[in-house]
Write a structure and sequence with these properties.
- It is a single chain.
- By secondary structure, the protein is mainly alpha-helical.
- Helices cover 72% and strands 0% of the residues.
- It has helices spanning 3-33, 45-73, 82-108, 121-144.
- Helix 1 (3-33) runs antiparallel to helix 2 (45-73).
C-alpha cells in the first residue's frame, strides 16, 4: 500500500471513528444515563425508545466502519506523523458530530434540546456547539503538530 493511500485511510477512518464515538457518547450520556432527552422528544415513550435505538444502531455502524478502515490502514506509526493524524482526525470527527447534530437537531429541526427541562436550555445547546468547536480546534492543533526549530547545544 502506498504512503498516500495509508495516510488517506488513517484520516478517513479516524474521522469516522471520532464521529461515531461522540455520537455514542451523546447517546450514552444524554439519552441513557442523564435521561435529558431522546432523539425525538415529541412522541410517546415507545417512539423515544425507537428513535434512540435507530440512533444507537447508526452510531454502532459508524464505529465499525471507522474501525475497519483504520484496520485496513495498518499501523499508524509506519507513517511520519501517523499517530498525530489518527488522534487529530478522531477529535475533528467528534467535534464535527457535535456541530452537525447540534445545528440540525437542536436549532434547525428543533426535535430536541440538550436539556429541555433546564432553566435556560439554550445555554446547554450553545455549550454543546462550543464543545464541538473546541474538539475541532484541538484536533487541528494535534494534526498540525508543533513546529520545532533545531537547537544548538553549546558547551
Amino acid at each position: 500500500m502506498s504512503v498516500k493511500t495509508k495516510r488517506k485511510l488513517i484520516v478517513i477512518g479516524s474521522f469516522i471513528l471520532g464521529f461515531g464515538f461522540l455520537g455514542a457518547m451523546d447517546g450514552i450520556m444524554f439519552h441513557q444515563i442523564l435521561q435529558w432527552h431522546s432523539v425525538v422528544m415529541d412522541t410517546d415513550r415507545t417512539g423515544q425508545i425507537m428513535s434512540d435505538g435507530i440512533f444507537h444502531f447508526a452510531t454502532t455502524i459508524t464505529l465499525v466502519a471507522g474501525g475497519v478502515i483504520l484496520w485496513l490502514a495498518g499501523n499508524p506509526t509506519d507513517l511520519s506523523k501517523g499517530v498525530r493524524l489518527l488522534v487529530g482526525y478522531f477529535m475533528i470527527g467528534g467535534g464535527t458530530f457535535n456541530l452537525i447534530e447540534g445545528i440540525i437537531n437542536h436549532h434547525i429541526l428543533e426535535i430536541h434540546r440538550v436539556r429541555p427541562d433546564a432553566a435556560n436550555p439554550l445555554m446547554y445547546d450553545l455549550a454543546f456547539l462550543a464543545s464541538g468547536v473546541i474538539l475541532i480546534v484541538v484536533g487541528l492543533l494535534i494534526k498540525r503538530g508543533r513546529r520545532t526549530t533545531p537547537t544548538t547545544i553549546t558547551g
